[in-house]
Amino acid sequence: MLINEKMISPQLMETYSFDKYEMFISESIAIEVKLKNWQRALHQAHRYKWFANESYVLLPESNIVPANNNIELFKRFNV
């Protein structure tokens, strides 16, 4: 898609050069999925906020209680 939009050009040895820089995504949502480690999920989701408008943590229902017990941390980091 980037080649078709002429945003990058193929070069030798499978590298690419950027011909122009243009934001083509106006909004994005990041979702960090973890099976159990909510602390690592929160840390990663917080880092996603650098690149995404919204960031969420997705945990299985069986492991959601510890994260819910620390909901203030999620609020503090806007996740």
Q: How would you concisely characterize the structure shown here?
A:
By secondary structure, the protein is α+β, with helices and mostly antiparallel strands.
How would you describe what is shown here?
The chain has 79 residues and is an alpha+beta fold. The protein has a domain at 26-76. 27% of the residues lie in helices and 20% in strands. The protein has 3 helices and 4 strands; from the N terminus they run βββαβαα. The chain has helices at 38-48, 65-68, 71-76; strands at residues 8-10, 16-18, 29-33, 54-58. The strands form 2 sheets. The chain has a two-stranded antiparallel ribbon with strand order 1-2. Strand 1 (8-10) and strand 2 form a beta hairpin. It is elongated. The protein starts with 7 loop residues before the first strand and ends with a helix. The mean pLDDT is 83.
Secondary-structure element order, N to C: EEEHEHH
Task: Give the overall form.
Answer: elongated
How widely separated are the two ends? 31 Å
Stretches with pLDDT under 50, minimum 5 residues: none
- Per DSSP, the total helix count is 3
Keywords:
79 residues; alpha+beta; two-stranded antiparallel ribbon; two-stranded parallel ribbon; 3 helices; 4 strands; 27% helix; elongated
Strand and helix layout:
Layout: E1 8-10, E2 16-18, E3 29-33, H1 38-48, E4 54-58, H2 65-68, H3 71-76
Parallel strand pairs: 3-4
Antiparallel strand pairs: 1-2
